[in-house]
Structure formats: structure tokens, C-alpha cells
Structure to design on (99 residues):
């Protein structure tokens, strides 16, 4: 039960940090950047991979923090990175028993 509380708190803190970072980085009132942010993409891949595959409370919490950081950016930012990170981490999760 405490594990889930840690995961939720880590995700919320990551979302708040992502929102603050996104407002500092992008001042425009609407989504103007359409390319993929490589830093956010790496954070999303590492975050979702750790969240699904870590098997450790601390590493999973760090994964949820990183995933929340990317998902918590301003509306319209981080959506592609989150989707790619989720897809890659699910593929790795499903491929783990094979490897």
C-alpha cells in the first residue's frame, strides 16, 4: 500500500516539475514546436522502462517521477515523447521473458 503512495507522490512531483520546466522553456500561448524533444524522449523512455521493469520501489518511483515530468509539461508538449516511451517500454516488458 505504501508503495503505491510513493509512486503517486513521485508522479505528482514529476508532473509539477515538468509543468514548471515547460513554462520556463516555452513562452508561447499555444503549441508551436512540432519536432520531438530528444531530452524529453530519453526521459520518457528511461522513466517508463524503470516504472514497468525495475522491480524495486525506489527505481520504480524514479521512473514514475521521470514519466510524470514528461507527461506534466504544458498541454501539447511531451505527448509524442510519452507515447514513444510507453510503446518502447511495453515492447521491452513483453520481450523480457523471451530474452
Amino acid at each position: 500500500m505504501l508503495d503505491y503512495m510513493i509512486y503517486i507522490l513521485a508522479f505528482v512531483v514529476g508532473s509539477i516539475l515538468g509543468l514548471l520546466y515547460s513554462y520556463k522553456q516555452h513562452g508561447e500561448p499555444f503549441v508551436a514546436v512540432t519536432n520531438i524533444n530528444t531530452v524529453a524522449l530519453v526521459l520518457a523512455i528511461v522513466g517508463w522502462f524503470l516504472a514497468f521493469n525495475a522491480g524495486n520501489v525506489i527505481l520504480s518511483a524514479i521512473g514514475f517521477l521521470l514519466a510524470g515530468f514528461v507527461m506534466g509539461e504544458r498541454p501539447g508538449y511531451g505527448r509524442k515523447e510519452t507515447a514513444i516511451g510507453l510503446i518502447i517500454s511495453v515492447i521491452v516488458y513483453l520481450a523480457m521473458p523471451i530474452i
